[in-house]
Each structure stands twice: as C-alpha cells, then as structure tokens.
C-alpha cells in the first residue's frame, strides 16, 4: 500500500500514513506499506514522480520516501 501525502508530522512519517497503518492493524491485515511525501513548500508533484511511486512499490518498497529530494545525499 502506498500513501501519498503533502505533509509530514513531528517524528518520522506523514499523519495520513500513520492513520492508514493503524486502520490496517485494527483490521488484522499484514500489508507492506510505504509513505510518499511530496509537494513540500508548495512544490508540484509531477507525473514522473507518480510513476516513480509505482516503480518503488513494485521494487524496493522503502518505508519512507521524499519526492523531489535525493535521499542518498542525506543517508549516512
């Protein structure tokens, strides 16, 4: 399950993503979930970024993804 949102809460993930995970757990479903955060600062979310979301869901499935930000620059 991929959750796309344009906000991030205090902590690690988006608020909608937190709610989706809670609902899945209450329903007794064990599903891999990924959070996609884009449009921060009023930026547009492009079609290419949407395609990247689907490719990510089919391949690596990182739990937290920021659209338009090169994560490798910040990972240590």
Structure characterization notes:
The chain is of the alpha/beta class and 76 residues long. It has one domain: Rossmann fold (3-Layer(aba) Sandwich). 32% of the residues lie in helices and 14% in strands. The chain has two helices and three strands. Strands 1-2-3 form a three-stranded parallel beta sheet, sandwiched between helices. Strand 2, helix 2 and strand 3 form a beta-alpha-beta unit. The longest helix has 12 residues. It is globular, with a radius of gyration of 13 Å. The protein starts with a strand and ends in a 10-residue tail after the last strand. The mean pLDDT is 87.
Figure out the total of helices.
2
- Provide the CATH topology: Rossmann fold
Shape: globular
Write down the domain tally.
1
User: In CATH terms, what is the architecture?
Assistant: 3-Layer(aba) Sandwich
What is the radius of gyration computed over CA atoms, rounded to a whole number of angstroms?
13 Å
Spell out the helices and strands N to C.
EHEHE
Q: Which strand order do you get reading across the main beta sheet?
A: 1-2-3
Give a short account of the largest sheet.
3 strands, parallel
Helix/strand-derived category reads alpha/beta
Query: What's the average pLDDT?
Result: 87
Strand coverage percent: 5-15%
Low-confidence stretches: none
